Sequence to fold (170 residues):
Amino acid sequence: MRYILFTSVESFVDEVDLIEKIFANDVDYLYVQKPHMNERELERYLLSIPESIRMKTFLCGSPSVAQDFSLAGFHQPVDWFVRNADAALRAPGLLSVEAECLGDLERISPEVRSKIFQVIVKNKPEEIPDNVFVFCDATELSGDVPNRAIVSGIWEFADSVSAWGRLCQK
Fold:
């Protein structure tokens, strides 16, 4: 079982501390989604994340910011990769794509597809390849998904660290 943890869109007190504690319990990758942060706030946020976690962090958004902070890579929807194929091919770091279903990847050029490290899908495919993660809500988790991208729910628990531990034992 492999896990991706998405940050909440909104920041909250002790978020980075909770991320560190959760990361100690079987998280493979962290996806930072902070669309409401300005550049300076995002910089401070990324610098507050320990380097060992930043090396496994994908930024939902700007490839250049991901590079500036030596993150693992960046994450964008399929449409971004279709419109920005040249930028994707030039991008350093790993690429992660968000799709409704695996068939959506056909819209991306073969060259860019060959460079994609991870795929996160909203609709669970019948067969889940190793580099494919399925969007899940921590409060409604299906036990038959081997690779889970926890995009919501975990931050809603009073003790999200304990909730994560229980989640990983399912």
About this structure: The chain has a mean pLDDT of 91. The beta strands are 2-6, 29-32, 57-60, 73-77, 94-99, 116-121, 132-137, 147-152. Residues 39-48 form the longest helix (10 residues). The radius of gyration is 16 Å.
